[in-house]
Specification:
Order of helices and strands: EEEEHHEEH
Number of helices: 3
Structural class: alpha+beta
Radius of gyration: 16 Å
Shape: globular
Distance between the termini: 46 Å
Number of domains: 1
Helix content: 25-40%
Strand order of the largest sheet: 1-2-3-4
Strand content: 25-35%
């Protein structure tokens, strides 16, 4: 990875999207997923994420015993990435480069932690 020529394009609590002008590759870090995408792959992935039918997938897998019900297929036939509605919304926010309002500060609701007062 080219450290000096990387520019962060967008950031959300679960990850960030950056671009390396030296090698022309987009870097997507999201939770425990890291993708390096060329320009054509980036456009295709972005279009897929922006247009994903969240309600359709949640209804289709409504009876499934998994928490993450929204699939994103990969080129590898036996690998499918599964996401929750909130995670898809964050991914969509990462790719919404035209209408971004800057990097936001975390709210208490954004922190997934059970706080117990003794």
């Amino acid at each position: 990875m080219c450290r000096n020529s990387i520019k962060i394009l967008s950031r959300v609590p679960s990850g960030e999207l950056s671009f390396c002008s030296e090698c022309g590759v987009y870097h997507l870090e999201f939770n425990n997923i890291y993708l390096e995408l060329k320009q054509s792959e980036f456009k295709q992935f972005k279009d897929y994420i922006i247009n994903i039918e969240i309600d359709y997938w949640e209804n289709k897998y409504a009876c499934a015993k998994v928490q993450r019900k929204i699939p994103i297929p990969s080129m590898q036939s036996n690998l499918v990435l599964m996401f929750k509605r909130e995670e898809i919304k964050e991914l969509q926010a990462l790719f919404n480069l035209e209408n971004r309002t800057g990097i936001s500060v975390l709210n208490l609701k954004d922190i997934d932690y059970t706080f117990i007062l003794n």
